[in-house]
Amino acid sequence: MKGISLISLGIAVIFATSITSCNNQKSEDKMEPTKGITKAAFGNADGKEVFLYTLTNAKGTQVKITTYGGIVTSWVSADKNDKKSNILLGFDSLGGYLAKPPYFGALIGRYGNRIAKGTFKIDTSVYTLATNNSPNHLHGGNKGFDKVVWESATENDSLPSLLLSYFSRDGEEGYPGNLKVDVQYTLTDDDELKIEYNATTDKATVINLTNHCYFNLTGDVSNTILDHELEIDADNYTPVDSTLIPTGKITPVKGTPFDFTKATKIGLRIDSVEGGYDHNFVLNKKDSTLKKVATLSEAKSGRKLEVFTMEPGLQFYSGNFLDGTIKTSDGKAINLHTGLCLETQHFPDSPNQPAFPSTLLLPGQKYHTVSVYKLSVSK
Ligand code: GLA
User: Three-state SS for 174?
Assistant: First the structure.
């Protein structure tokens, strides 16, 4: 956390910038964006002010992040024809998020993905969580980290960087231990969005933090992601039961629709996967260093997204529950498979699966993990 100055929620800008309003998309488009970070009001939630930060890099790529849920609301970048568009599903006002869309762009915690039947044990203590995805617990419960207001600070460095902090008290959503969480988002000049997660606890707990951005590299939600090509460096995946809980098996992808070891169109075999892709891939990486684990590309836009992580798993979710009922801020229906998530993580239900890498965090230990989404364009 070197170089971070915790600026109180009132102070705004760390770099000189010509952007004055983050809410006025039209006038912003006309202006040449200046590298840096700006802050704007974004409404209120839980009786607290919510802010929207805009991170701009030297190329003019802009990522917007709100302190509500730590949500990345948009990522605007140029395609191969230099046309700028937003590659994320999201909204331009807080109301869209308060209506509880399925975790668009959000920070997920205390435990990303599912815990079977909402219960787990640490030593002899049994903990009970909300079964908000009946019969299981999903993404931290009824009010996970995606639905709380985070404290924010900006970093006084050469890259636009936003530090979000949240204190999750002992017993919140049923989890043990007071947990101090910091998430730092940094946008580099190479169009990398780096997400660094840190946490400590005062009592043994479980933790599995991730981000839930839905990507659509066409930059247009009227297209599905079925023509996107995906490559995942995973020879195995964790098959699930009918409630999406891993059976405990680690199964080879070879000869199955889960084989993304070579770049493959998502739509090619999706029909043979009941319900679509919503599975944890067991990454081939052998240690917890930061490694490239997946590449997503889309030919028409020329965009490519590379995923790097320190985590052992990657949840590939093909937007199977999107059904057109949610609309974008400009009224377009968000239909089936119009966005996909690549959630870096420990495996689902690890607290109940002793053979999976552990998600236990003990007092005195430091939870630290980094994931990077790197965007590029080939012309
Ligand atoms: C995750 C889960 C999915 C679904 C989405 C949100 O990716 O794995 O099953 O719950 O979140 O709709």
Answer: helix
pLDDT in tens, 45-61: 999 999 999 999 999 99
> Which residues are registered as beta bridge partners of 78?
84
Tell me whether residue 86 is in a domain: yes
To test ligand 1's pocket by mutation, which of 108, 132, 133, 138 has the most ligand atoms within 8 angstroms of CB?
138
Domain residue limits at 336: 9-224+292-377
Cβ 344 under 6 angstroms from ligand 1: no
CB 113 less than 6 A from any atom of ligand 1: yes
pLDDT in tens, 148-205: 999 999 976 799 999 999 999 999 999 999 999 999 999 999 999 999 999 999 999 9
Residue 94: CATH number of its domain: 2.70.98.10
By the 10 Å C-beta count (0-12 exposed, 13-18 middle, 19+ buried), 291 is classed as middle
User: How many structural domains does the chain have?
Assistant: 1
